[in-house]
Amino acid sequence: MAQYTRVSGSVGLITLQNPPVNALSAAVRLGIGEAVQRALGDQEVQSVVICGQNGLFCGGADIREFGKEMTGPPLVPMIHAIEAATKPVVAAIEGSALGGGLELALGCHYRISHCKARLGLPEVTLGLLPAAGGTQRLPRLIGVPAALNLITTGHHVTAAEALQLGIVDQVTEHNAVDVAVKFALSVTGKPLHDRRVSSLECPAAPDLDSLFEEAMLKVRVACVQAVRAAATLPYARGMEREKALMATLFGSGQARALQYFFFAQRAVGRWSTPGGARWDTSQPRPVRTAAVIGLGTMGRGITVALAQAGLSVVAVETQAKQLTEARKAVAGMLKRAAVRRGTTPEPGSITYSDQLQAAARADLVIEAVFEDMEVKETLFRQLSAVCRPDALLCTNTSSLDVDHLASQTRHPHLVLGMHFFAPAQAMKLLEVVYGARSSPTAVATAMQLGKTMGKVSVAVGNCRGFAGNRMLKRYLEQAFFLLEEGATPEGVDRALEEFGFAMGVFRMSDLSGLDVGWRVRKAEGLAQSGLTGPSARVRQGRRYSPLGDLLCEHQRFGQKSGRGWYQYEPDPWLHRFLEEYRARHGLLPRRIDQQEVLERCLFVLINEGFQILEDRIVAGPEDIDAIYVLGYGWPRHRGGPMFYAHMVGLERVAQRLEHYHQAHPEVPYLQPCGLLRRLVASGSPPIHRWRRAIAGPHSQL
Ligand SMILES: CC/C=C\CC(=O)SCCNC(=O)CCNC(=O)[C@H](O)C(C)(C)COP(=O)(O)OP(=O)(O)OC[C@H]1O[C@@H](n2cnc3c(N)ncnc32)[C@H](O)[C@@H]1OP(=O)(O)O
Predict the structure, then answer these.
(1) For 119-167, what is each residue's pLDDT tens digit?
(2) What's in the keyword line of the UniProt record (predicted)?
(3) d(CA 13, CA 35)
(4) Residue 266 CB less than 6 A away from ligand 1
(5) Domain-embedded: residue 295
(6) Final residue of a domain: which of 438, 464, 490?
(7) Which of 49, 423, 513, 628 has the fewest C-beta atoms lying within 10 Å of its C-beta?
(8) What is the pLDDT of residue 601?
(9) ipTM, 2 decimals?
(10) How far does residue 260's CA lie from ligand 1's centre (Å)?
(11) Are 120 and 11 found together in one domain?
């Protein structure tokens, strides 16, 4: 909807009304069109202001309408009508003007922005391009290099930057609508020709061809082609090109995946637990002071993330040398982040101590000590004695039993996992792991704290490895089995990187350190040295690959030791080692193609995802997809593992798993899990119906 009123005698005020972000839905487009006509036809009205209700101009096209049949008037002719108006039209930008919202503002003759507003054309992040004239008007207004940068990255700019670039005409600290109305009165009757952006010439820039060629190599080709049309063609032909390019993107799998992921990241905030706790009925407690215990790499990152979110942080490290180093490292991290943001580091929000007692007054404590149950058990008993009785006690463990740690304390309902991903100050993902006794308030508080730190928090039930690492285990395992059967680390990584992972599984393991998993496997009784014969490759009645353990026995810990799955200097060791290993175990190497690598590594991970859904460890497929894209490098343009399964087709995923299970009956995880089989049997419903299909007592399966 759009509301029309007359203000200050002669200004027609059009207010976009579609909470929460005034997206340009069919109803809003219809409303704007009608209001513009009314304003232009009203004899009393000399100028027009367009704004959005509730302090937000417009979040762009309504993404929920994409992929559905188009209804309502199209955006492009409406923007043309505004630009062609003979009365000045002023956009009053507050909050955000993004995508179609900014394109609407670019169709206005003037743009006044509040100083806190942000502007941008983020369509590329949804697999699209700004096809309501954005690729044609923005280069004409601010020049090709700056427009190309904004359009191909999707970056938002601040109001100050927008003023400097020439996107807006004025920035105000006052009420932008009031300022725009006054401004509209002041420009009444002034000529408008040079205010119509579509009629401007693209400002000349040196060596445009090489700029376009360079951009083509780096970014979405369609965006570059559209901006090139702005620089080389008349406006009307440029608009035709923009429309044609958008048509090729609109139905693409990438666009569907990116749009799905936009909503998935937001859906995880509406968490629920099998015990009935929910986001909308649980009240978070305020957290003003947080303590971090253990200042290794993770503890330092968590300290920085908390301080940057404006909390007072008590950083505790009992080893003097480590404490001194951590203090320096944290100061350096804060300084570098401030330089990047162009601000000064906040002084005084972190205090350091070598005494646990320093955490006594904290609202919430996050321990990040060595990943060892005995060490953590002792710490939780101490924290329970030292801290306030209402303090939330959180563990940053990546796999240990949260319920067991809770049982060491006096108030188990206040114990949770907060599983950060390295580097903790930068990674967007946080797994909030609730135990059997965690209270709804505790979950809500940790979820809210994650949001305050700028993270996407996903509520996850307590199980070994939680959601992310539990799935990762199956993925790694298949990669090892593939090596046993004849594949090479390079071949497996190539297949995964061509699929879209920034790093294949072996390169990623080398980076994070092979010894980390080795320590966990030793603690679980899986890694055992000296075993020979068939028993070397079987544990707990299932196929097991000791390859990772053997590499560690040869002191190959990955990048940190200069050698892992790859050698960082010429060294044919690994291939010889694999050949000898296969010969020793009577394994006949075969040629393994990319399809098998992908299906075995990815479908087994997806199968575990379905098992996690069935076990109610997470509430919906969006949780798993957010975890995998934000924490494990799953390519965003493929939406996440569960969305990928939906795109591939559940029947095919189940068939291929069955096929591999028949070939490898000793690997039980290759057998399609019950939920996957039931979804296939019920006709493979689309992903947005899975949540309902899984839901316990009301299950439709
Ligand atoms: C011809 C085609 C023309 C144009 C193409 C386009 O315009 S494509 C759309 C381009 N716009 C965007 O990509 C902006 C997306 N939105 C945002 O970046 C943020 O939502 C925004 C506007 C900065 C506000 O952020 P905030 O943190 O305040 O809110 P949040 O992101 O949680 O969003 C609140 C709910 O609104 C839903 N929503 C946001 N934008 C849109 C949109 N454009 N269409 C539909 N719905 C949108 C969002 O999903 C949240 O709802 P929820 O139910 O929680 O999912």
Answers:
(1) 999 999 998 999 999 999 999 999 999 999 899 999 999 999 999 999 9
(2) Fatty acid metabolism, Isomerase, Lipid metabolism, Lyase, Multifunctional enzyme, NAD, Oxidoreductase, Peroxisome
(3) 9
(4) yes
(5) yes
(6) 464
(7) 423
(8) 98
(9) 0.98
(10) 12
(11) yes
DSSP string, 72-125: S--HHHHHHHHHH-SS-EEEEE-SEEETHHHHHHHHSSEEEEETT-EEE-GGGG
Best probe residue, ligand 1, of 21, 24, 96, 156 (max atoms within 8 Å of C-beta): 21
Looking at the 3D structure of the chain, how many domains does it have? 4
Identify the active-site residue in 94, 123, 484, 485. 123
Distance from the CA of 123 to the center of ligand 1, in angstroms? Answer: 11
What's the N-to-C CA distance of the chain in angstroms? 40
Distance from Cα 59 to the centre of ligand 1, integer Å: 5
CATH value at residue 639:
1.10.1040.10
Q: What separation in Å is there between the alpha carbon of 119 and the centre of ligand 1?
A: 13
118, 534, 581, 701 from 588: Cα distances, Å: 60, 15, 11, 42
**Residue 701 pLDDT:** 40
Active site residue 123: yes
Q: Answer yes or no: 103 catalytic.
A: yes
Say which of 103, 367, 477, 622 is annotated catalytic: 103
In a domain, 259, yes or no: no
Q: Which residues pair with 459 in a beta bridge?
A: 432
- The C-alpha R_g of the chain, in whole angstroms, comes to 29
Domain that holds residue 563: 469-585
State whether 168 and 35 are in the same domain: yes
Q: Is 62 in the pocket of ligand 1 (CB under 6 A)?
A: yes
Is residue 190 located within the same domain as residue 126?
yes
pLDDT at 217: 63
Residue 558: CA count within 13 A, CB half-sphere: 17
Q: CA 263 to CA 81: how far, in whole Å? A: 32
For 425-429, what is the mean pLDDT?
A: 96
Same domain for 554 and 574, yes or no, is: yes
Pocket probe for ligand 1: among 16, 53, 63, the residue whose CB has the most ligand atoms within 8 Å is 63
What is the CATH classification number for the domain harbouring 338? 3.40.50.720
